[in-house]
Amino acid sequence: MDVVSMNIINSSMVSICREMGITLMKTSYSTIFNEALDFTCGLANVKGELIAVAEYCPAQIGGMPVLIENCIKELPIEDMKPGDVILHNDPYRGGLHVPEHTVFKPIFIDGEVIGFAVAIGHLAEIGGMTPGGFAGEATSIFQEGLRLPPVKIIQEGKDNEEVWKIMLANVRTPRYNYGDLRALISAADLGEERLTELIQKYGKEFFLKTVDDLMDYSEQRMRAEIAEIPNGHYEFEDYVENDGIEDKIFTIKANVHVLDDEVIIDYDGTSPQARGPINATYGVAVSAAYNAMLHITDPEIPRNSGCFRPIKVVAPPGTVVNVDYPAPEVGGNTETHPRIAFTIIGAFSKAVPERVAACEGGTHLNFVFGGYHEDYDEDYVCYDLEGVGWGARPYADGNNMCDSINGNCRTTPVEVFETRYPWLIEAFRLVPDSGGAGQYRGGLGAEKILRSRSDLITVSQMTDRHKIAPFGLFGGKEGGLGATLIQKEGEKEWKDVSEAYGKVSTSKFSNISIQYGDRVKIVTPGGGGYGDPKLRDPEKLKEDILEGFVSEEAAETLYGAKESISK
Amino acid sequence: MRFASSGYYVEKYEKCSVCGKLVYEERITQVNLEGKEALYCSEWCIEWEKKRAELKKKKATVS
Ligand SMILES: [Zn+2]
């Protein structure tokens, strides 16, 4: 193993992936790409295994190997030609959820495919029953959007116009979808070009050998990390509060078996799949397990499929964590993924408390809407995601208002949001006391008030944590609940969507009509606390009160402060 | 999937009855612990199904 070359090649590949992402961000049309960064760029070997990835969306990082491995079973490498670009989004063929579009390009060296440049991104509009996807009340995959098996969108360098026509005829915003797909393709093109240059510099044989060594190295590092965890069977459960169709709770169960330097994560005991769209695909179940493992092990381990070799995932078919066709699944990748990942982390809290954090808000809020924009004389659609409070750690408070564990995305700035869409943001602030109390406090959630400037905006949402709060650990308290509330123009009262529109769920719904002057308030959940609140450093508590993060009342009731600290 | 085991093009998603991953040409069909014919992706999954049942039994006896 030539460690020096291995490090240089690894860093070069990670840089290529970062540059692919910057290209995607700079050339895309929709805010979900150019502001929120809901995408991932990576490189795969000829078997579809991940060899390098940049630090974008973790849901897509863990899911990428499953995706590519399944695609090349259906569209075999022998059928690929130089210049081909393949497009795929099918959740039932290794995909993560319908909006997640994977674009990958085979890399030919000396006439032979040696790997793939891969860009995965969440398209804001995909057809289906709601503008912006995330039909909170879908009961079938066919209501969720257009499904694509792996197809060549570019054939030998030329547009496959038949595929483009089908794609663009099935969405509400063809111009934006065109731009966003071009951005994904550009990222894959750039990845192919840069990796080809790198391979030419080092020579094919040396490069391939070094990449194999790199993956072995990551595997060894991951095995060493797991070997430090005491052998045993650790269990944990958390819940999705409803599925948008029935008012009932769904259990996510993780059985974590640590045996020397390997881990088996078995979801046996998880609820049967839901009628509504909270179901996760197999790709999500695997990705969430990898995500959890990467969060409790050394962040310096090079990220590639070598890390995943010591981790075996068992996701029983027909359950909320491995949905069977043709049930709906769009919320599985955003809501159920964080629930799975933190159920695994919760199980590990029993083995390695010093490595885990309390639960974060665990939702992307997924506030989607669309309509006609008078200023631009054009139909628009937006997928807006919001941050949540993160769970406290064994050594520090949780971060405020960050995207959930599988997203790593950004909130779209108010100025951009108001320019692009017919809303006025009247308030955007952190919510005091939403961070779970603890020796280390959970991060704060936020509150955003939007007022419609349009006669009709059609709104849907797929979120969770309106009823079941994010858990704390070791005496730390739960994080604050989320909420979505509507205030109709001319009315004083705020109502949830069950009260205002008669929906089954307040957190998962499709196509409510928002009119001119109506307000929507989105409250995002806070993170859980870690350790007994009474052990919190008084100086930190004082600072919390001065910052407005904790109220005087909570300081007394939850933290046991004897007198007013701020005076 | 290129061709489902029915011989038709796609739209049949066959999964390992234990780990849940999609199963293609490489597959094992045999009777499971409940006496029903089941699909497996590997020997590992056949063994894990047995081991998991033993662990559950042991846990039930302890509690
Ligand atoms: Zn299996």
Automatic annotation (TrEMBL), chain A:
Stated name of the protein: N-methylhydantoinase B
Single GO MF annotation: 5-oxoprolinase (ATP-hydrolyzing) activity
Any one Gene Ontology cellular component term annotated for this protein: cytosol
Source organism, top-level taxon: Bacteria
Gene Ontology biological process: glutathione metabolic process
Pfam family of the protein (one): Hydantoinase_B
Gene that this polypeptide is encoded by: hyuB
Domain Hydantoinase B/oxoprolinase: 2-533
TrEMBL record, chain B:
Domain of life: Bacteria
Name this protein carries in UniProt: TRASH domain-containing protein
